[in-house]
Amino acid sequence: MAKPVKIRAKLKNGIASVKALMPHPMETGSRKNAEGVVIAAHYIETVTCELGGKVVLTAQWGPSVSKNPYFAFKVPGAESGDTVKISWVDNLGESSSGETTLK
Amino acid sequence: MKPICTRRKILQGLLALAGMALMPLQLFARNGAAFNATGADEAMRALFGDKSVTASEKVRLKAPDIAENGAVVPVTVTADIEGVQSISLVVVENPNPLSARFNLAPGGVPDISTRIKMGKSSEVIAAVETQSGVYTASTDIKVTIGGCGG
User: Fold this and answer.
1) Which of A55, B45, B50, B115 is the most exposed place for a label (fewest CB within 10 A)?
2) What is the pLDDT of residues B105-123, one digit of tens each?
3) Are strands B84-91 and B73-79 parallel, antiparallel or unpaired?
4) What sign results for the dihedral spanned by CA atoms B110, B112, B117, B118?
5) In a domain, A68, yes or no
């Protein structure tokens, strides 16, 4: 089971500033290990962000997003008490998510 | 009187439901051709088709001039543009230039930050898509240590 997404969210004037960290190796498939064997590609393909159960942003990533991806964005129309949920699916079908509540 | 819940009706209903469930997925489906493209122009074409692409000062790409570590290059894209549908990051010199694409819900705020890998020094393009066209900003980033296999 992949590690959960860590989220920090701040609410200001109805706009939620969300920062997320997703522990993930993000292997490109072009790196080799010490024996010269290619390490298989393993990276997050899609990320979905929800505010109060409604999808507000989706992202598609290639392997050239850094290891343990950091991702920050802003969402309008947020209210105190809303839940921010971020989930991802990688190219091997693994998935994980995390959520936090706006104060 | 005909029964309301025939097997055919139920199956039709189920199919309709399945169709509805699939729709949002298709909307946000990953653009494989764009991610597999090996050239920046090819990736842009796969992303935006025939939409006009123009450089605009309303798009701001914040990134370091020199990245000490190509494996972790922080970039921020913001735009003073209404009705932004998506934001894409393209690293021209990477083997697969398209790095990430973010789709905003209607009324979303175009303000995205993330970290990307760069194989070597390269031009990085931020492309902001609206209904009417694509607006870009670009910057050259020097990489002192590569991010791919280095």
Assistant:
1) B50
2) 998 999 999 999 998 899 9
3) unpaired
4) positive
5) yes
Q: Does B115 contact A65 at a Cβ distance shorter than 8 Å?
A: yes
pLDDT in tens, B13-28: 666 666 555 544 444 5
Which among B73, B98, B115 is the nearest to A62, CB-wise?
A: B98
pTM (2 decimals)? 0.83
Q: How confident is the model at residue B130 (pLDDT cuts 50, 70, 90)?
A: very high
CATH code of the domain covering residue A22:
2.60.40.10
Tens digits of residue pLDDT in B23-50: 444 445 678 889 989 999 999 999 999 8
Query: How far apart, in whole angstroms, are the C-alpha atoms of residue B134 and residue A57?
Result: 19
Q: Which one of 3.90.550.10, 2.120.10.30, 3.40.50.300, 2.60.40.2470 gives the CATH number of domain B26-143?
A: 2.60.40.2470
Rounded to whole angstroms, the Cα distance separating B16 from B106 reads 25
Token readout for A9 is 């969210």
* A1 occurs within a structural domain: no
CB atoms within 10 A of CB B21: 9
Q: How far apart are CA A81 and CA A64, in angstroms?
A: 35
Q: Confidence band (pLDDT; 50, 70, 90) for A92? A: very high
> Which of B104, B108, B114 faces A69 most closely, judged by CB atoms?
B114
Overall domain count for chain A: 1
Question: For chain B, what are the domain ranges?
Answer: 26-143
CB B146 within 8 Å of CB B119? yes
- At B33 the pLDDT is 86
